[in-house]
Amino acid sequence: MAKENQFVEQIANIDADFPQWYTDVVLKTKLVDYGPVKGTMVIRPYGYAIWENIQKEMDARFKKRGVENAYFPLLIPMSYFTKEAEHVEGFAPEVAVVTIGGGETLAEPLAIRPTSETIIGSMCSKWIQSYRDLPMKVNQWCNVMRWEKTTRPFLRTSEFLWQEGHTVHSNAEEAEAETQAMLQSYQEFAENCLAIPVLTGRKTEKERFAGAVATYTMEAMMHDGKSLQAGTSHYMGQNFATAFDIQFLDSDGTHKTAYTTSWGVSTRLIGAIIMTHGDERGLVLPPVVAPIQCVIVPIAARKEGVIEACEALKAELEGAGIRVTLDKTDNSPGWKFNEWEMKGVPVRIELGPRDIEAGKMLCARRDTLEKVEMPLENAAESVKQLLDTVQKGLIEKARKHRDDRIVYADDMASILAGVEAGNFVKAGWCGCRACEDKVKEETAATARVYAEGETRETCAVCGKKAEHVIVFARAY
RNA sequence: UGAGGCGUAGCGCAGCUUGGUAGCGCGUUUGGUUAGGGACCAAAAGGUCGUGGGUUCAAGUCCCGUCGCCUCAACCA
User: Fold this and answer.
1) Cα separation of A215 and A327, whole Å?
2) Which nucleotides of B are covered by protein (CB under 7 A)?
3) Does domain A294-390 have CATH number 3.40.50.800?
């Protein structure tokens, strides 16, 4: 028991000090390390493997939607940013700028991209002439830089990895539909692959992307009840098309200005996984994106036949497409159990002489910590089913956690009480900026997303007639 | 950028009040033993005390500056 305590002390208590728990977990599980420059992170192999799995799943979805991958330059002329007034105002404070190249001061400073609407817009202007060129859908997987004041691995770093999709359409309806469709695709991915339930919908004007007509978001509830913006999809209307002169000759013979969208998710999703599923023992990774889905821990590894049996099992699981590791290190079995649990591996198999003799294996689920004995025969099929069960169990647990913490409020005191208790608070809103600002000032909660389809009688702030229902929450 | 906390061996920390040989636990290396929730014995290696300056015969310890990290607040995916 003393040793169990010793383990627990390695990471902060998840409920008593969640931020410290997060930092401890990401460092100790070797997902990430700090870079030498403030606000930068090194994504280590175990963390990068999660990103690769995210990329693989998402990229397939993009391609099904007719989106092609491309790559645009890191450096963007500063003048591009000034072409869209709201965009430059929104991003200027956090843009890093290159002013010297080859030892000489540059004639025009170059921005390190914080996002690529401007350069992609300028290229589209060149590439698009006819309605036959539309719709155009490109995506790039890349890094971007935003000079943030304070940072945290995966959640907010000055450089991060993401994908940014950009589409151009001949009419507003199609562009709006694309914006919505991408949001739905993100939601499907978040729920089915990451086991993270999300609320989706439109952002308020205040929270809208700089330069967009409308911003749609998916918001996820973290372990502590705070919200995390896990992905966004923007309808730009003709704002960027006008600024970058994206015009086409339509079938009716007239020149028209195009409509654009953009949408993105980032390595922040890794932070979302950690803060949604993690527990007092560390990470809990959803099987679909876990770098290692199953670890085999040999018991009495030196006894004859044990390692051989483990190797055979490993080969069988690998053959079935399961990402499996056999832990042949010298550490004691107990040490390995704790280590792999901290690293969030969904299924662990313990295999020793006793099991081999009986033709069985002991499988432990990371999500519930339950151990189940299963026959070695058809092991791959059993493990696959167990992984599937874990994946489903995770989303159900996360959904219950979130749904239990959605409350309603009709006055400011209730909003405050609600968010302080770690809830998402749904409240009526008259639609005015002053009331939205007041909620933020008095409760530190922001308007995360419109609760579409819901109605309340009055604005919880001013008491006037409510035009919308808003989900308020404190956020990362 | 505002408030608070922390920088001493790979990791976690003590030592600072009251200046005087650089310590502890874990880990690492070597040899041996080890069966199911962080094993055991023996030996060994490992330090410009974040950094720059000052005070002093003498600074991890006192003074001034500076850099970094963590938490909270403002900005953001």
Assistant:
1) 46
2) 1-2, 34-39, 68-77
3) yes
